[in-house]
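Input for the complex:
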Amino acid sequence: EVQLVESGGGFVQPGGSLRLSCATSGFDFKSFGMNWARQAPGKGPEWVAYINSGATTIHYADSVRGRFTISRDDSQKSLSLQMTRLTDDDAALYYCGTGREYSIAVWGRGTMVTLSS
Amino acid sequence: QSALTQPASVSGSPGQSITISCTGSSRDVGGYNYVSWYQQHPGKAPQLLIYEVTTRPSGVSIRFSGSKSGNTAFLTISGLQAEDEADYFCCSYTSRNTRVFGSGTKVTVL
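Predicted:
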């Protein structure tokens, strides 16, 4: 069974940084592209970032480009999202997901990021 | 990038068919056959229903179908059932190498 488990969320002050992780199992991680998406309470999902198999192609949403960095460790079958200069707009439930290049077939349960001064 | 435009709500009676629209531009929906649709029940992660405009993943009911015309994509739910009551979101690849979700549609089964 394919499993994605996010961690690393929590409370952070505006302007602060946070690193999210996604542990995976049940599929050939190195062969699949991976995504981060987020969803603020009461809002729809927002795609955040994508990294392909081999990490040769990386895309970011305009709202996070230059502040967030997506990376992968194929040896650990894990995905990361380094988030810096966080603002209130970044508060959300963050999901990692995988599937085809332009869709997310499998989603984790998410990890919550809360901005609090 | 602004969200793709979806109707806020659509309703139907059990057994009926409903269609949800998703309108973008030539830079996203109209320019690529990379539209996907997701169903989301409260407190749950989104679930993929359709990818690449018309393709259903294995395990998804044949009652769900996708199509596209110009800059607008459509999700049709046939034989509406109580369990279909949920939020639905479209998503498209864009010319800026990003992906953009729709504003979301709440489906109510009367």
